[in-house]
Amino acid sequence: MFRRRHIWLSGGVVIAAVWLVAGSAIWALRSQKMTADKTIVFLKEHPLRDLTDAERQQVIAEAADCVNRLSFDERQRFRNHREQRRWFEQLNDAERQQYIERTLPKGVKQTMSAFNEMPHQKRKQIVNRALVDMERFRDELDSPEAMMLLSDDTVRRVVEEGMRNCFSNATEDAKLDMQPLIEQIQRIMQGRR
């Protein structure tokens, strides 16, 4: 009788220990998953003002790492957040370039992956909406400010990186659906040179 209780007690302790370890592992994995909200909290907790250049570089690198750990949907939420824009405006030109160079490749790959997985009709809707938006902002694209922006090396590299990623990561169907948009972007870029 005593032996049977001992076995049951030992078994219960082992099962409780296994559940404790499993629960801890699940909690650790969930806490490591980066979200848009966690990234925003990081930006709020690490304002750039009053930091040395080396400290700023460190914060920018850590922020870029946070952004690169976001899923596609979380990255979209982050991109539209007001706090992200405020933080980005604190960066000088060289810091913006550094941040963009660290986050752009992963963002473009995520976007292309999501675009590839969309049904044909959804991709076509997105491309048509982008073409309408570009047409609507045609006058703004012809402004001197836009011409200066489009002549900027960073912007050119962003566009070229996006185009290169489109062609290397897009499915054949996605490339076909994107063709009108790519042609329009090329016309705009060529018209500014």
Explain this structure.
By secondary structure, the chain is mainly α. The protein has two domains: 10-91, no CATH class; 103-193, no CATH class. Helices cover 85% and strands 0% of the residues. The chain contains eleven helices and no strands. The protein is flat, with a radius of gyration of 24 Å. The chain starts with a helix and ends with a helix. Residues 21-26 have low confidence and may be disordered.
List the helices and strands and how they pair.
Blueprint: H1 2-32, H2 36-45, H3 53-68, H4 72-79, H5 82-89, H6 93-117, H7 120-136, H8 138-141, H9 144-151, H10 153-169, H11 172-191
Considering the chains and any ligands shown, give keywords for the structure:
2 domains
